[in-house]
Write a structure and sequence with these properties.
The chain is an alpha/beta fold. It is built from ten helices and 16 strands.
């Protein structure tokens, strides 16, 4: 397959030649490489060719399968991801039953492949069934399961978490941390996130266990990650589009962690610019309207993530588009150990066409998931995607 008349993230005209499931060549004048029967795609010069976004939330994509399909299922989750330019998503284990086994993880991943729109990595719980205590299942996880998390509340007992770090170091497993001290969060959610971030970064340094901090949202938590990295801890972190876009003086929509202050937003942007932040991930978390009315935390984000980040960071903060592509494609893929996220020879070809300067106001009405849990004060974005392609992979 030959792609012609495209533009890359640096604003350069580019062609790609794909064959055998990999990118074979990137440059100009590649027509001679394509055989007479190979397809040729013309990008029209009006779109930008970027690596498709990866890890619809390095931390959290909630497809709610099994057990909560009335909120979202694999099919609607896949369509929302594809609409936002995602070809690979990372799924959380807070399902019913909780995903605590490789067999259940494989079932969800296989269902995603049958849906045919994007691939998935299904994480497994740190403690069995989220009981906060039992870790034996971690000792027998196969090589196919390399990421565990206690999404939604974190492991509260420090002794249990220390043992989990020790086991995961021995097994080569990465811990993905939702940082929240639940004894403190009812009265001070900032302190709850900051303290648990400090604890887990220290455990990562002590055991040299790979740790990925999910949805970092405060200045204090980001500073803890920054210090841990300087001390040699194998820590990475992500921030979410909604924690970059909203501030708590204009949006009180319930998410976990909550929408923060303008100072926190400034700190996250500083962290992106100085390299402390490794990735941007969505925390896509749909609910039914009834559950949301009862106080369920979460909002959809797969479809809006790139447009929000391009508008906020590239147009608003002068961030190079190439760096945004790294934050949303290359680095997430690296953290998950995928040979994807770059448009270079030898890499798995996944890409997305993006159009610019077309204002779109996002609200619940134009989101794909069945339960439409988006803020009424949705973002006005100036970038949109055509469906990503996995045809050559």
């Amino acid at each position: 397959m030959l792609i012609q008349n495209a533009v890359n993230a640096r604003g350069e005209a580019v062609e790609l030649y794909l064959s055998g499931g990999t990118i074979q060549a990137v440059g100009r004048g590649l027509a001679a490489l394509a055989g007479p029967d190979e397809p040729v795609l013309d990008a029209g010069g009006l779109t930008v060719l970027l690596p498709a976004a990866f890890v619809d939330d390095l931390h959290t994509t909630h497809w709610r399968t099994p057990g909560f399909e009335y909120k979202e299922d694999v099919e609607t989750g896949s369509r929302a991801a594809a609409a936002g330019g995602y070809t690979f998503v990372n799924l959380m284990p807070n399902t019913k039953p909780v995903c605590s086994s490789a067999a259940q993880a494989a079932m969800v991943e296989e269902e995603a492949e049958r849906a045919g729109l994007c691939s998935a990595n299904q994480t497994v719980s740190i403690t069995k069934d989220f009981d906060g205590v039992t870790l034996d299942h971690l000792k027998t996880l196969p090589e196919t399961v390399r990421f565990v998390t206690e999404d939604g509340h974190g492991v509260q007992d420090a002794s249990v978490m220390a043992k989990a770090f020790a086991i995961c170091h021995q097994r080569g497993i990465t811990i993905m941390s939702h940082a929240e001290d639940m004894e403190i969060s009812p009265w001070d959610y900032r302190l709850a996130e900051d303290l648990e971030t400090l604890r887990n970064c220290w455990l990562s340094e002590y055991y040299q266990t790979r740790l990925h901090m999910c949805h970092v949202s405060t200045r204090g938590a980001l500073e803890a990650v920054r210090i841990a990295k300087l001390r040699g801890a194998p820590v990475t972190c992500e921030v979410t589009p909604h924690h970059l876009w909203f501030t708590n003086d204009v949006c009180d929509y319930r998410v976990n962690p909550p929408i923060r202050t303008a100072d926190d937003v400034a700190a996250l942007i500083e962290g992106i610019k100085d390299g402390t932040v490794d990735a941007i991930a969505t925390d896509h978390a749909p609910h039914s309207e009834e559950d949301k009315a009862k106080g369920a935390a979460g909002m959809v984000g797969s479809e809006t993530a790139f447009g929000v980040c391009y508008t906020k960071l590239c147009r608003g903060e002068g961030l190079p588009l190439e760096l945004l592509s790294i934050l949303m494609s290359e680095r997430p893929a690296q953290i998950l150990g995928l040979n994807k996220g770059r448009l270079e020879p030898g890499w798995t070809p996944t890409w997305c066409w993006w159009t610019w300067n077309t204002p779109t106001r996002w609200t619940a009405k134009n989101c794909i998931p069945n339960p439409k849990t988006a803020p009424t004060t949705g973002p006005n974005c100036t970038a949109g995607s055509a469906p990503p392609s996995r045809a050559a992979s």
